[in-house]
Design brief:
Blueprint lengths: L5 H10 L14 H4 L6 E5 L2 E4 L4 E4 L2 H4 L8 H12 L9 H13 L5 E5 L2 H16 L3 E5 L45 E4 L4 H11 L3 E7 L14 H11 L3 E6 L10 H6 L5 E4 L10 E5 L1 H4 L17 H42 L4 E6 L2 E6 L8 H7 L2 H12 L3 E2 L8 E2 L6 H17 L2
Parallel strand pairs: 3-13, 5-6, 5-7, 7-8, 8-9
Antiparallel strand pairs: 1-2, 2-3, 4-10, 9-10, 11-12, 12-14
Helix pairs in contact: 4-11, 5-11, 7-8, 11-14
Length: 441
């Protein structure tokens, strides 16, 4: 493929006069992409096209927001019909009930549902709900996990030099942003993940003050790091012993790992589950669901949660079409993404072994990330910070662009298979990887 990106460069230069870093999120800007990011124009199925007419096989899928792929016919039709009848009413609608009922069918323990707009909103509300319901101030948050840009969560969510992290028995809290409320992290208990001893020690110290433990089922913003065998169940058992809520953040893994998310796959049931990204098939739809007794604290006069755009009408129609497709034929769509993900991971591992490339592929079903490292596995945030060559991965991913493969340039993010991906797409990707590694010597 002969690729030129002059139009993207021109748009980036123009954007600097009106937007910071040329866009609305740092992850889309030059920090990951080099001198300027690619500006995309349209997409269909598993492919995305930039403003210069270059075609890419897309493994980013809008950071996992598109489990069915781009412009899925049923989702497009649902959006078109809904828009023609009115974009938003900010009133009670039947479609809201229908999507809530679908989530109850999919998600274990989803006795009650509340809609929001983004994963950040859902996790913010979940923590407030946990504090209000239990009357306790503190919560446990794990290193390397990202739950959105709420002040109380913004700690140790990005890679840092290992020497700055402190001892794992007493992690140093490193804020992810300037401008936080100066007491925002006072009630955030920071712990290493996949370390049950650390969780037990925290409950020995603060047990009566801990409202909730919030965790991803799979760390998805430090590559892909699965839980150790039995870890999530052990955390669940400990929280029950201390009358503490377990919040499972499935903003990334929901609608992807299984119809019921990590709860179903790892057979662990949380008190509150947060959802986002893949729920709205590309539209800003999020939710938090859970036990009726807990969720009822949101009733008027209890724990406050407002939002003009909550359960936006067009978003609900897109979500219904998306969920119906994911549930159809006993979850055939998700099974397909697992098969494609496995094929891609197996092929990548074979190439790395054959070419003696110091890289591994970590994955859970359709979620995967290539990690340039000499280690055989990366088990937590500290190992990621210590042993993963993020610069080499970035150069590798940007080189794949030249061969028509669009993977995230950030080693801390990940790729994802969708319903739209095919065996031919896997073969195309593996051929491109072979070429990149060969040209790199």
């Amino acid at each position: 493929m002969t690729r030129q990106t002059k139009r993207s460069e021109e748009l980036f230069r123009r954007s600097l006069d009106s937007m910071i870093e040329g866009g609305s999120s740092p992850s889309r800007g030059p920090a990951n992409y080099g001198d300027y990011p690619l500006f995309m124009e349209r997409a269909e199925g598993a492919h995305i096209f930039d403003v210069d007419g270059n075609r890419y096989l897309d493994w980013m899928m809008s950071y996992g927001a598109l489990p069915l792929g781009h412009a899925h016919a049923e989702v497009v039709a649902a959006i078109q019909q809904a828009a023609a009848e009115g974009t938003h009413f900010a009133s009670a609608t039947e479609i809201e009930i229908e999507v809530a009922e679908l989530l109850q069918k999919m998600i274990p323990g989803a006795e009650r549902v509340r809609f929001a707009n983004t994963g950040t909103e859902a996790t913010m509300a979940a923590i407030r709900l946990a504090r209000g319901y239990t009357g306790r101030p503190k919560f446990v948050k794990f290193e390397g996990q990202y739950h959105g840009w709420f002040d109380d969560f913004l700690v140790n969510s990005h890679p840092h030099p290992i020497a700055s992290l402190g001892h794992r028995n007493d992690p140093v809290k490193i804020p992810d942003s300037s401008g936080l409320n100066r007491h925002a992290l006072d009630d955030t208990i920071l712990l290493p993940w996949n370390d049950m001893t650390a969780v037990e020690r925290a409950f020995e110290t603060w047990g009566g003050q801990i409202a909730a433990v919030i965790t991803e089922g799979v760390i998805a913003n430090m590559g892909v790091i699965p839980p150790a065998p039995g870890y999530l169940k052990a955390v669940r058992q400990l929280t029950r012993q201390h009358d503490t809520l377990l919040i499972l953040d499935e903003t990334v893994t929901g609608c992807r790992v299984a119809p019921g998310g990590c709860q179903e796959y790892y057979e662990v049931h949380a008190d509150i589950v947060t959802l986002g990204k893949g729920l709205g098939a590309g539209l800003p739809v999020a939710a938090f669901v859970g036990r009726a007794q807990v969720m009822e604290a949101l009733a008027w006069g209890g724990v406050l949660h407002y939002g003009t755009q909550n359960a936006s009408r067009i978003g609900m129609h897109a979500a219904r079409a998306n969920l119906e497709c994911l549930l159809r034929d006993d979850g055939a769509a998700i099974k397909h993404t697992w098969r494609i993900g496995e094929a891609l991971c197996n092929g990548l591992s074979e190439i790395f072994e054959r070419t003696s490339t110091p890289a591994i592929v970590q994955h859970v079903g359709p979620m995967l990330q290539i990690l340039f490292t000499e280690k055989r596995t990366i088990g937590d945030y500290r190992e990621f910070c210590s042993f993963v060559d993020r610069d080499r991965y970035r150069r590798f991913a940007l080189a794949l662009f030249e061969h028509g493969v669009y993977m995230t340039p950030s080693a801390a993010l990940h790729s994802v298979a969708s319903l739209a991906h095919t065996d031919d797409d896997v073969a195309f990707t593996l051929e491109a990887v072979d070429k990149v590694l060969s040209s790199a010597g």
